[in-house]
Design goal:
- This protein is α+β, with helices and mostly antiparallel strands.
- Bound molecules: cobalamin and iron/sulfur cluster (2 copies).
- The site of cobalamin (B12) has 33 residues, from helix 3, strand 6, strand 8 and helix 5.
Length: about 260
């Protein structure tokens, strides 16, 4: 399979393990009725600290929109799988999908679940995007046990919104969620954003995580080539992770962190 996924870490898990945890969304209709295996693929995106010195958006939004990059890589892999296994179906998913992606990657043995609700890999830390190929073909599972982070609570203590609770993320209170909301933001949220200096998303619960110390940089060259860490109000949103919300939202946030 290395000829299919190249240097990207990947693993297999039984679809049955997540069939009761599917997320309700439109893409659910694309799920195969007789799905057997989820192939989880990791897309590391860490560029190294120097790249983020002038950043005013979250690290995941620094390079070209990951939905575009990962979908291209996953579709190319799915095409190769279709050639090799012509009797089977291979369906690509990323982010906006019925698959609980963190759980899938943990099930495939690729890493552990963080208290910050994110997936953490030994080499790349939590600086990875997750994508999947679902198929009706059986592949032997590569994970056998559920794994949790060291539970140091650094993320819980560092979260400026107190959004990491015993029951997971209080998403309505998470700055990442709030930065994507349309309309006016309450003054206290604008102030929090200004304190963090981040106009899109939030990285605090990842920056403090000891599993991210010494994370390896991405082998995906395109993330380096397209890196634009500092975003100004006249940014061209085309091809950026914040484009789907429209220009007004990122403009509003940039004003908020400058106020
Ligand atoms: C909705 C969403 C958000 C929401 C809510 C996030 C949340 N944690 O609830 C908001 C907008 C806040 C958000 C923010 C971010 N997100 Co987001 N988000 C999603 C999305 C689309 C769905 C998540 C979801 O609803 N899952 C279902 C609910 C039920 O999950 P849950 O409550 O967390 O519980 C799950 C796990 O805890 C796990 N679990 C619980 N108990 C146990 C026990 C065991 C033993 C195991 C194995 C698992 C397990 O299983 C549960 C079900 O999946 C996923 C993509 C996807 N399809 O999965 C991306 C995703 C999770 N997001 C991603 C990213 C990058 C982010 C941000 C880091 C972006 C940023 N820098 O601002 C932040 C991080 C905030 C945070 N600390 O979570 C990546 C995470 C990559 C990674 N390494 O984990 C994903 C996977 C997208 C992708 N394709 O790469 N996100
Ligand atoms: S992304 Fe930011 S606001 Fe959201 S849980 Fe993590 S530290 Fe808290
Ligand atoms: S900071 Fe600590 S508790 Fe939070 S995800 Fe990382 S190891 Fe787990």
């Amino acid at each position: 399979m290395n000829d299919i996924f190249g240097v990207l870490p990947y693993g297999f898990s039984d679809f049955d393990l997540i069939k009761d945890n599917l997320i309700d969304c439109r893409a659910k209709a694309r799920l195969l009725q007789n799905a057997r295996t989820v192939i989880s693929v990791l897309f590391p995106y860490y560029l190294g600290e120097d790249f983020y010195e002038a950043a005013n958006v979250s690290r995941y939004a620094v390079s070209e929109d990951y939905h575009i990059v990962t979908a291209e890589l996953l579709n190319a892999a799915a095409d190769k799988l279709r050639e090799r296994f012509p009797d089977n179906v291979f369906e690509v998913f990323v982010d906006n999908s019925p698959l609980p992606e963190v759980r899938c990657a943990v099930n495939a043995g690729l890493g552990c679940l963080g208290r910050n609700s994110l997936f953490i890999n030994k080499t790349y830390g939590s600086w990875v995007f997750l994508g999947e190929i679902v198929t009706d073909r059986h592949f032997p599972p590569t994970g056998t046990k559920t794994a949790l982070c060291s539970g140091c609570d650094a993320c819980v203590k560092a979260c400026p919104m107190g959004a990491i609770t015993e029951h997971g993320i209080d998403r309505e209170n998470c700055l990442s969620f709030l930065s994507q909301k349309k309309g006016d933001l309450p003054e206290k949220i604008r102030e929090k954003m200004k304190e963090t200096g981040c106009a899109w998303g939030c990285d605090i619960c990842q920056k403090v995580c000891p599993h991210n110390a010494g994370a390896a940089v991405t082998p995906i060259r395109r993330f380096f080539e397209t890196a634009a860490p500092h975003v100004s109000e006249d940014v061209d949103v085309e091809g950026r992770a914040f484009a789907w919300r429209g220009k007004a939202v990122i403009e509003r946030n940039i004003r908020a962190i400058k106020e």
